[in-house]
Amino acid sequence: MRNGFNISSSGEFVNEIREDAQEALFYYHAGARFKPGRGLRAWTDPAILGRVKSARRFELDLAGGRYDDADQSSAEEYTPLDLALAAVGVCSLKTAIAGGSARGINFDAIEMVISASVQPCGDTAGEEGLVPASRVRRLAYDIRTESDADSDLIDEVTRQVLDRSPNHRTAKDRTPLHFRHGTRPLSWACHEAPTGTEGGRTLSRHVKWISGTQFESTATEGFRAPLRVDEAKQFSGVDWAPNPQEYIVLALAAELASLAAGQQQKATGATGTWTVNARGLLDLRGLMLVDPDASVGFHDITCTVEGPSELTPARTEECIQAAVQESVLVELLALPHEVEVRLAHNGPASRRQ
User: What is the rounded end-to-end Cα distance, in angstroms, of the chain?
Assistant: First the structure.
């Protein structure tokens, strides 16, 4: 046991998934609903961890899915992008801690400020598919560590293991997303947004490791309460809060429900109830280097949308398509992004000074 991570049990699990690939497939589920007069609520559903069903149930009331309002920084409710940034940051730090633990590093502290520059692109559509109305121009990680290791080893381990972080890879790589209206698949394509757009704002989250798989994330501005992150008991956690992958599908479902309701309001002057159920797959064979062909990133992300009964199917699908186009999180997850990583380490040499 090091840093709250059971290294020996990880080795045992690797042997299990070599023998039975089904044990490596972790499906995470979440849902969200926008209701007139009630607002936006999101929740996690039971996760399928290999051959085990984990009874996960957490609920959050959220702010809407638009980020062009500077006053949102003082809102009491999280936005979907708050959740997604925390999920990427925690997943990256957790992977770094696990990798450092395997190399014999004892961490006293590790934390990060993760920042995303979100800029509007206008209401545009390409001939071959949708161009996001907003996009994340830049992702940056400012990581600070305290440990018994020297800075060179920390730098080597952190930069190597970041590419083993599922949510980091989902944001960094091109990731296919799937959308459905009920049982009907919706065809769509997401293309690079135009460059050189002015305006926008930078949104940041501070992520701090507490112990083992427990983390907290707070806003770098505003007064929202800390956002907790943890793993299921079957994966060394204590069921304190949703895990990083659950936050990804939870955030995406919430943003789409909010934006679809906004599109209905724009098109018809009225708003009904919109429900989105989302799921994603984490294949631990990629994360744990068991199968070189297995995906490391959180993938196979699918959203199923149900609109108000008073809308025709055609109008419902128009609202869904417009919400997908407007979604910052669709752009963040579907398209590749460069990530700037800056490290600061307080190790044995700096402590002696």
Answer: 30
